[in-house]
Amino acid sequence: xxxxxxxxQVIPTPPVNYGGxxxxxxxxxxxxxxxxEDITLIACKGSKAPPNVNLLEIEPPGDFALGEEKAFWHYRxxxxxxxxxxxxxxxxxxxxxxxxxPVIGTMHSPLPFxxxxxxxxxxxxxxxxxxxxxxxxxxxxxxxxTWNSVDMSLxxxxxxxxxxFLSVNRIDPNKGIHVFTDWxxxxxxxxxxxxxxxxxxxDRAYPETIKKQCADSGGLLDYVGLASHEDKVxxxxxxxxxxxLPQLPNYLEAFGLAAVEAMACxxxxxxxxxxxLLDIVENGQTGFIVETFEQFVGATRAxxxxxxxxxxxRAEKFSIEAITPKYRDMILRVxxxxxx
Length: 340
Known about the structure:
Blueprint: E1 2-6, H1 21-34, E2 38-43, E3 53-57, H2 65-75, E4 84-87, E5 103-106, E6 124-126, H3 129-139, E7 143-145, E8 164-168, H4 177-187, E9 190-194, H5 205-215, E10 221-225, H6 229-238, E11 241-244, H7 257-264, E12 269-271, H8 277-280, E13 287-289, H9 293-302, H10 308-315, H11 320-335
Parallel strand pairs: 1-2, 1-4, 2-3, 4-5, 5-6, 6-7, 8-9, 8-11, 9-10, 11-12, 12-13
């Protein structure tokens, strides 16, 4: 079976610093290659492939829409050489080739388009149960669910707890960073903020606002901004809990990769009940689901009761070893004629 996996043309796969989708694609192809599949990865220039994975680097990183469109016209002629295409890109240009080629389109944003693609069987996948349900209703087509996978070896487990709460998000209003700073100050708890404030930012003034809030917190809040993977993991290992507050209804957190990463390190997660996070966080067992400031305060007081080992065990359900066989089973069904 010859498999083609398509990543984005925005940042390298895997990402150097910030980047969730690109890590997920890297982990998927790594898992499939480890199971002996013949797999080729299409990504932007500067990307790296796991062992035994063929790599095609096409466009320079940078542009969301234009980069993917230009890349498509470079690899379009190669598509008939594969038995199945796993399209993880933002806009899924591979679906334009028609029904002769099976394309599984995994969506990493709420919706990659506003109307169904021009295919009899679009074969779309969400990355969480709520995400799939949302996309199915909006596009009026069947949508299956395929969870993202995480390389557990990149997130060493620790039992020790730190004294600060950690926000690991893109520095964007939809991610609720301003809610995190407000709630930490009102609750009188220490907070640290890590996340992309340079590359994938819509409101350039927002990170500056968050920086000022931290500077005016009297030492309660620490702003780090964009950090390396190694520094992010150290921050996760050193915190009391990771806090993720994506804001409904304006933003849908399709999966919530940082929640799995945090629990892999043995850390509970405090989060809003936003879509994919509900697949990951078990309320009261591996973290707390909160909607109000009062609930957040209760969670900060109860978080030390969460067993770090339970967090790690939950994260392992999203490991490469756990997810890849299920992912491959779906691919095999498609190559055998299954459609949706």
